[in-house]
Amino acid sequence: MSASRPLVIVLNWNGEQELLDCLDSLDKARHQHPAHPFDVLLVDNGSTEGVFSQACRQFPAVEILALPENLYWAGGNNAAIAWALERSYPWLVFCNSDIVVDGRWSEALARFEAAADIAAVGFRVLGEYSRVPFAAFEQAQQQFRMDRLSTEDELYISGCFLAIRSDCFRRLGVFDPVYRMYSEEDDFLMRVRLAGWRTVRCSAPIWHASELASRRVPRLTAYLAIRNSLRLRLKFGPRRPLSSFGFALRVLAGMLDPRREVDLVNSYQRRLKPSPNPLVNLPILAAACLWNLLHLAETLQMGHRDRLAALQGRA
C-alpha cells in the first residue's frame, strides 16, 4: 500500500452479494485505470453473518480491519480514519458496501488534488436516496465523459461515497460518534465549511444499491434519522431552536396524514414515516424528541466545541 494515493474505506456489516460486487468494481477500476491508483481498506463492523470471509479470500489485495463489534457508520469509519492517518493517506474515500463504482472515479478525484480550497468531493450517485435500476447507471456511464467533468458546490453530500482530505480530520477531529449513523457526514461537512474549505460534487457516476444494512432494522433507522436530524439542527443552530421544533412538527404532520403514503422507494422519506400506522410511528418520534431534550446540554457543548475547532483550524 502507498500513502501517496487515495484510500477507499469500505464499511461492512453482514454484507451479502452487494459487498462482493462493490469490491469487484473497485478491483476492476484499479486494473483498468492504473494511472490513477488507490488502495482499499475493508472495515468489518463485527459481522456475525454474510460474505466477509469470502471477500477476504476473493480479494487478497484488500487490506482488512476487523472490529470486534458493530460501531455503526461513525464509529467504524472513525477506526478506519485512525488507521489511515497513521499511514499518511492524502484522501480518504468513504464507501458503503452496496456501492458500484465507475472505473474513472479516481481520475475524477485526481482533478481536485491541486485545488487546496476543496476538501470534500462527492459524486453523482444514482440511488443516493431512492432506488435506481442498475441499467440507469450503465446508461450514465455511457454518457459520461471525463473531458466534460462538471463540479458544483454543495453542502449536503451523502456519505455513501464521499472523498475527504485527511488533513480535515487532523484539524477538525473525526466523525461525531454520538450520531451512530445518519447525519454524521452532514455534521462533519458543516465543520469543514466553517473551517473555510469548499465541499463539492462532481458529475462522475456511482451506483448505490441503497440500504443494504439499514433496511434490516427499519424502526431503529427511523429513530436515528429523526433523532439525528433534530440534533444536527440544535448543534449548529443553538440560537434557532425553532428550526428543530418546526422539523419535529413537520414529521408529526406527515406521520398523522393518512394521505401521505409510506414511501417504499425514497429511503429518507420512509424513515420519516416508516409505517402507515401512527401507533407505530408516534413512539419513534417521541423517543427521538425525548433523547434530544435529555441530551440538550451535551449537544450544545459539543456544538460550541466543534465550531471553535473549525475556526481555529481554518484552511
Give an overview in words.
It is a single chain. By secondary structure, the protein is of the alpha/beta class. It folds into 2 domains: 7-214, Spore Coat Polysaccharide Biosynthesis Protein SpsA, Chain A (Alpha-Beta Complex), CATH 3.90.550.10; 217-303. It is built from 12 helices and 9 strands. It has helices at residues 17-32, 52-58, 72-85, 105-110, 134-143, 166-172, 184-194, 218-236, 241-256, 267-272, 278-294, 296-312, and strands spanning 7-12, 39-45, 63-67, 91-96, 99-101, 118-126, 151-153, 161-165, 198-208. Strands 1, 2, 3, 4, 5, 6, 7, 8 and 9 form a 9-stranded mixed beta sheet that branches. Strand 2, helix 2 (52-58) and strand 3 (63-67) form a beta-alpha-beta unit. The longest helix has 19 residues, at 218-236.
Topology:
Blueprint: E1 7-12, H1 17-32, E2 39-45, H2 52-58, E3 63-67, H3 72-85, E4 91-96, E5 99-101, H4 105-110, E6 118-126, H5 134-143, E7 151-153, E8 161-165, H6 166-172, H7 184-194, E9 198-208, H8 218-236, H9 241-256, H10 267-272, H11 278-294, H12 296-312
Parallel strand pairs: 1-2, 1-4, 2-3, 6-9
Antiparallel strand pairs: 4-8, 5-9, 6-8, 7-9
List the main descriptive attributes of the protein structure presented here:
315 residues, alpha/beta, Spore Coat Polysaccharide Biosynthesis Protein SpsA, Chain A, 2 domains, 9-stranded mixed sheet, globular
Give a short account of the largest sheet: 9 strands, mixed
Mind telling me the CATH class of the largest domain? Alpha Beta
Helix content, binned percent? 40-55%
User: What fraction of the residues are assigned to beta strands by DSSP?
Assistant: 15-25%
Series of secondary-structure elements, N-terminal to C-terminal:
EHEHEHEEHEHEEHHEHHHHH
Which geometry do the CA atoms define?
Answer: globular
- Counting DSSP H or I runs of 4 or more residues, the number of helices is 12
Number of strands: 9
Q: Look at the structure and name the CATH superfamily of the largest domain.
A: Spore Coat Polysaccharide Biosynthesis Protein SpsA, Chain A
Number of separate structural domains: 2
N- and C-termini, Cα separation: 28 Å
Instruction: From the alpha carbons, calculate the radius of gyration and give it in angstroms.
Output: 19 Å
Q: What's the architecture of the largest domain in CATH terms?
A: Alpha-Beta Complex
- The CATH topology assignment of the largest domain is Spore Coat Polysaccharide Biosynthesis Protein SpsA, Chain A
Average pLDDT, rounded to a whole number, is 90
The structural class is: alpha/beta
Poorly predicted runs of 5 or more residues: none
